[in-house]
Amino acid sequence: MIKPKRRILTHVIKMILLVVFSHEAYSAHGQLPSITDIAFAPDGKSLVSCSQTGIQVYSWPKLELTNTARSSFSNLKCLAFSPDGKFLAVGGGNPSERGGVEVFTWPQCKSEMLLSNHDDSVTATLWLGNRNLVSASLDRKLIQWNLTTQKAIASYQGHSRGVTSVCALPNGEIVSAGYDHSVRVWESATGSLNRTLNQHSMPVNAIAMCPQSDGRPMLATAAQDRTIRFWQPTIGRMMRYIRLEAEPLDIAWVSTTRIVASCNDGRVRLVDSNNVKVLKTISLLQGWCYAVAAHPNDRSIAIAGSDGEIRRFQLETSP
Amino acid sequence: MIKSTYAGLVLGSLVLGLCNPGMSMDPPPQTSDQKSDPRSTESNHTIDFINDLIPMITKLGCNAGKCHGSAIGRGGFKLSLYGGSPKTDYDEIVRRHGGRRINLADPESSLIFIKPAEFIEHGGGAVIEDDQHSMLLLDWIEQGAKFIRQRELKHIEVHPARYVATKVGDTTSFKVLARYHDGSTRDVTNLTRFTADDSTAVRIDKGSATATLERTGRHIVIARYSTEVIPIELLVPTSQVAPDLSHETRKNFVDEEVLSSLSELRVPVSPILDDRAFMRRITLDLTGRLPAQSVETDQTAIDRETIIDDLLRSEAFVNFYTLKLARLLRIQSKQDKNLVTTTPQAARAFHDYLARQLRARVGYDQIAREILTATGDTSKYGPAAFFTAVEDPRLQTEFTTEVFMGSRMKCANCHNHPLDKWTQDDFHGLTAMFSKLTRSQVIRLNPIGKNIHPNTGEAALMKLPGGEFLPEDTRDGRSTFAAWLTDRDNPYFARAIVNRLWQSLMGRGLVEPLDDFRATNPPTHPALLDRLASDFIDHGYNIRHTLKRIAMSTTYSRSSNPIAGNETDGRFYSHRVATPLGPEVLADAISDVLGIPSRYGNEMPGTRAVDLKDGGVRSDALDILGRCDRSNSCEGAPSPIGPLAQKLHLFNGELLNNRIGAHSGRLDTLIKSQKLPIEIATEFYQVALNRHPNKNELKFFEHLFNPKESSARQRAVLEDFVWGLVTCREFTINH
Question: Shortest CB distance from A7 goes to which of B108, B120, B126?
Answer without folding.
Answer: B108
